[in-house]
Amino acid sequence: MNKLSQIRELLKKHTIDAYLVPMKDQFGSEYLAPQFRRIEFLSGFTGSNAFIVLTQKASAFFTDGRYTTQSKMEVDGKLFKIFDLAEKSEFDFISENFKSAVIGFDPSIFPIAVIKKYQEKLGSNYELKPIDENLVDEIWQDKPKIKTSSAFVLDKKFSGQSSQKKVKDIFKNISDDYILLTNSESINWLLNIRGDDLENTPV
């Protein structure tokens, strides 16, 4: 049984009509560690921007104009319908294929604001159903293990200023008492912390 057939069995198990696969990890990172490259695992696509919608009858692959040629080279057109996001969005695809539907998603990689946006665009005939286990991970037998490395503090001669100075500068420009950062790159920049978990990205 191929990957898409396996996921379609999971769609039946969870009683959903479609499943959303973004190119994101739980931190919303732009650059993904190997264990979070779910779209590459499913389709073979190695670019940095894509989105997949899986249904029982079709698999839709979306990317932007930068990757039009690359996606046609890497993604099997017999398995996926390939769309340029400038011409058709995932919302268009879903509404064209379903008058109403239950759409599954992994809540750990979809911010609440994004889900609200989806609900607004799709309307009340579509239910967005959170599924705790990621369906791609469920079938990914040889998924790479999470790489861990020791974090270290970047010397001031490289960072240019201390983390305390950066924090003070931020609060000079805002009236709030607190800020919440969730982006790994932003946190590491602010605290002058570095790591070796991602290639070409010091986090």
CATH level-4 homologous superfamily of the largest domain: Creatinase/prolidase N-terminal domain
Radius of gyration: 20 Å
For the residues shown, what is the average pLDDT? Answer: 93
Strand content: 15-25%
CATH class of the largest domain: Alpha Beta
The CATH architecture category of the largest domain equals 3-Layer(aba) Sandwich
The biggest sheet, with number of strands, parallel, antiparallel or mixed sense and barrel status, is: 6 strands, mixed
Order of helices and strands: HEHEEHEHEHEHEHHHE
Number of domains in the coordinates? 2
Silhouette: globular
Contiguous helical run count: 9
The CATH topology assignment of the largest domain is Creatine Amidinohydrolase, Chain A, domain 1
Number of strands: 8
Q: What strand line-up does the widest sheet have? A: 4-3-2-1-5-6
Distance between the termini: 37 Å
Instruction: State the helicity in percent bands.
Output: 25-40%
- Ranges with pLDDT <50 over ≥5 residues? none
* Helix/sheet category: alpha/beta
Keywords:
9 helices; two-stranded antiparallel ribbon; single chain; alpha/beta; six-stranded mixed sheet; 203 residues
